[in-house]
């Protein structure tokens, strides 16, 4: 990982994000065997993740619910401050900036959320929703220029600019997600974080939105961080895929490599669970359930369900190691060439 | 194989203040004993209403307007409320989408399971517990005797759905209707639950009606597929043929929209527009305003579900 590589747009360095959910000190007091103890509950959502996102690429983060992929996305966006670690944008550190200094970067990176029913204000017309970010970030623009910009982004995402005075409830789910994308594009950003942008949509509408996102990427030279649990969607749109489990990065590799030759045991199990059209049902069974992120297992977080587990896995956390051909794998068994 | 359930020309209506909307339009379909049938469609296609109407669970203002639902040779669509209760949850059980919603959070799972047993069988509490433990073992819940006294929040999402399946098995039903049973679950858990359903259907020769929006899941578990669009069945046939050689333009479009079908093609095949709401279904073929093959006849005449080549039934004027 070089510091000032112009190809790299965003770098994530050892990011840790924990949430304290123990409440006030009265709630933390517990009676245990006749003794009073104080107990804190901390959700360890993201535990030391590092990777780079190259300009113009689509990097996808996949994992099951609760693995910390959305937390990671929000931390990258600066919506949560990380507990430790750094986020670099074009080589400059942005996670410790003041709000005023961050304002410039906010125009460069935008977010599209999962549920287009919840992420658009139901009491604002579409036009008003789209004008708001432009007016806030570019106060020098005149009314006419703002209106022009709004019409331009609406046309870009395939919504008739004459519909500016309509409210979100007058649009279908797919159209609303197009409007969310238009809002993200209103400031001509370079980097878009899309958190499950198609999970709430029907299959035929999913295809429309994915096509739109790929077209926009080509036209406007966008870089995507794409968060999803749907592996077949990820396989279609990404250049690089990162697999997360319980707050840690298991494996990160170029798409083809990851889907053809998954190295990490969790990636292998996850890929075999994808239902494939018209194939016999066969998948690798994972035993047990996902442990709670409050009480993380010692050592490798996956060791409780892994079939290659040994004593080292139970005690030592595997580091993210570079493998062949731009891959990162965090697994003792892979390192020791046991698999 | 003998016929377990036969639905004939079923129409389900919802009476609103201004007008009556037809949610299920002339649907005929059957399930043999031990057969696994998949019902797929996008949201609003009427697949859940179809499932609910079989066990007469449609609530007002919905009602069955006409048609027959013949279960083991008897038309159950006109059964009284009390008589229906001897079938519903007994010979036909249903599994719903969200296990968090279907289990009562303030009752232990033992209480919830015994409730079902007592509703349909005249047994002692000890015997009821025995039945519950047996079914929990069947869905691979470890140490079921102990688990019986626990509450839903003490189980993970996948385990909760397995308990829901165990409840549906308590009365040894002949048919299970599963309405999006894995939509709320992760892929690895989904694979586990589908494995379990498949195994149970095979060992107990149970019929399964699997309602889902996910074509790939259906294609792996079922023997036949019915594709629904705007309240009608547009294509019906054996799973392998429908999955590999779809005939109806809607099914073709839907399968083409799946990323895994696109292969190296960068752009996904997309169907223009959205499924019309019940009030706006076009006259003639319901798919006519989104179809690329549309002709004059499609806007005038509603196509019938007729048998075409390969033994597949398709409702389209243009499929030979």
Record the SSE blueprint:
The complex is a heterodimer of chains A (339) and B (320).
Chain A lengths: L7 E13 L4 H4 E4 L2 E4 L3 E13 L3 E5 L6 H9 L6 E6 L2 E2 L5 H10 E4 L13 H12 L5 H14 L16 H13 L5 E5 L7 H18 L2 E6 L2 H7 L2 E6 L2 E7 H6 L4 H8 L38 H5 L5 E2 L5 E2 L2 H4 L4
Parallel strand pairs in A: 5-10, 5-11, 8-9, 9-10
Antiparallel strand pairs in A: 1-4, 1-6, 2-3, 6-7, 11-12, 12-14, 13-14
Helix pairs in contact in A: 4-5, 5-6, 6-7
Chain B lengths: L2 E13 L4 E13 L3 E5 L6 H8 L7 E10 L2 E2 L5 H4 L7 E4 L3 H4 L6 H12 L4 H14 L5 H4 L9 H13 L5 E5 L7 H18 L2 E6 L2 H7 L2 E6 L2 E7 H6 L4 H8 L2 H4 L33 H5 L5 E2 L5 E2 L6
Helix pairs in contact in B: 4-5, 5-7, 7-8
What do these coordinates show?
The complex is a heterodimer of chains A (339) and B (320). The mean pLDDT of chain A is 89. The longest helix of chain A is centred in the middle third of the chain and has 18 residues, at 203-220. Chain A has helices at 25-28, 69-77, 99-108, 126-137, 143-156, 173-185, 203-220, 231-237, 255-260, 265-272, 311-315, 332-335, and strands at residues 8-20, 29-32, 35-38, 42-54, 58-62, 84-89, 92-93, 109-112, 191-195, 223-228, 240-245, 248-254, 321-322, 328-329. Chain A has twelve helices and 14 strands. Chain B has a domain at 3-222: Rossmann fold (3-Layer(aba) Sandwich), CATH 3.40.50. In chain B, a hairpin with a 2-residue loop joins β4 (62-71) and β5 (74-75). In chain B, α4 (109-120) packs across α5 (125-138), α5 packs across α7 and α7 packs parallel to α8 (187-204). At the A-B interface, α7, α8 and α10 of A face α8, α9, α10, α11 and α12 of B.
